[in-house]
């Protein structure tokens, strides 16, 4: 934890000019288990240097019992900090990053989930005493995104098509992710419209978002598909429970974004195939995100 705070303090000296805050939850599928909740806050400085603070939570299917469920995903909270360098050349974004994280009680999964359930009048989670604890994580990663196509249709609608891939190597997750997303709208931000797996790279849609003296209303609608290969995923491959990694999963993405000046609100919906072999069911998540710049 002291190492994470050190990296944060180093970056606070930079006057970041673009920010994002996002919240992802499985409330749309009326479930509350496995990949259950995620919070992310990102600073981007000068469209080059970024820092992301991310918290994600995983739980078994039955959160009403305090008995350890060895035939299901273990309780796990992961708190991480990502430092990144972003570079844009023409219509291509390259990003390299390094992530440090912590799994355990001090990742505050129990606290956040309990408070959220209290606010929404849902049953309290009772099994956090069985969580994976006191594990430090690290990762190195690279993301490339390309605006393969951009045009104006009917002399009115702006469109673009972004293809991206991400590779990450680490002791929490090692894998490959690819996505392709089509966007149509009017006066939307000319950022790179990317959707990465919940296991890989975090918020990277900030680059090229800010535009000086923008005083317009804009909107966009996005549709995309993606695939992920998880060579290693700690809670499924470390051997603590009798569940196994499905390795490959696919997802469909839809998103609506509303923009005014340099403030954007986005709601996205994601349907993902099973990432646990023993639970062959799709998962649905909703994500709310805000981006703003000065």
What does this structure look like?
This protein has helices at residues 2-12, 109-119, 234-237; strands spanning 18-25, 34-45, 49-59, 76-89, 92-103, 135-153, 157-170, 173-186, 217-233, 248-260, 263-272, 283-293. The chain has 294 residues and is mostly beta strands. It has a single domain (2-293), classed as Lipocalin, CATH 2.40.128. The chain has a twelve-stranded antiparallel beta barrel with strand order 1-2-3-4-5-6-7-8-9-10-11-12. The two termini are 30 Å apart. The relative contact order is 0.16.
- Spatial strand sequence of the major β-sheet: 1-2-3-4-5-6-7-8-9-10-11-12
The CATH architecture = Beta Barrel
What count of domains describes the coordinates?
A: 1
Q: Determine the mean pLDDT.
A: 88
Determine the structural class based on helices, strands and strand pairing: mainly beta
The fraction of residues assigned to DSSP E strands is: over 45%
The secondary-structure element order is HEEEEEHEEEEHEEE
Oligomer: single chain
CATH topology: Lipocalin
Note the total helix count.
3
Number of strands: 12
Helix content: under 10%
Main β-sheet: number of strands, strand sense, barrel status?
A: 12 strands, antiparallel, barrel
Which descriptor suits the 3D outline?
Answer: globular
